[in-house]
Amino acid sequence: MKQLLRTNDLTSIAFAQALLQGEGIDCFEIDVNMSSLEGSIGIFPRRLMVADDDLAAARVTLLDNGFDLEA
């Protein structure tokens, strides 16, 4: 698994997942339960992971839809 996206923006994670699912790319969100440890204030980013073989296609999909993957 490789990290594709890391963000505090929950809407960006949801949009990215929808885009990837639409392309048939499986993804997995990690660090979801950190909010219970931080008090739900959003200081710990969530990460979206994809299989190593899907990384290139997933990057193209998100970049084509306006995501900044360098941040």
From TrEMBL:
Q: Entry's Pfam families?
A: DUF2007
Q: Which organism is it from?
A: Roseovarius gaetbuli
Domain DUF2007 intervals: 1-59
For this protein, the record's InterPro entries field holds: DUF2007, N-reg_PII-like_a/b
Report what the protein is called.
Answer: DUF2007 domain-containing protein
Superkingdom of the source species: Bacteria
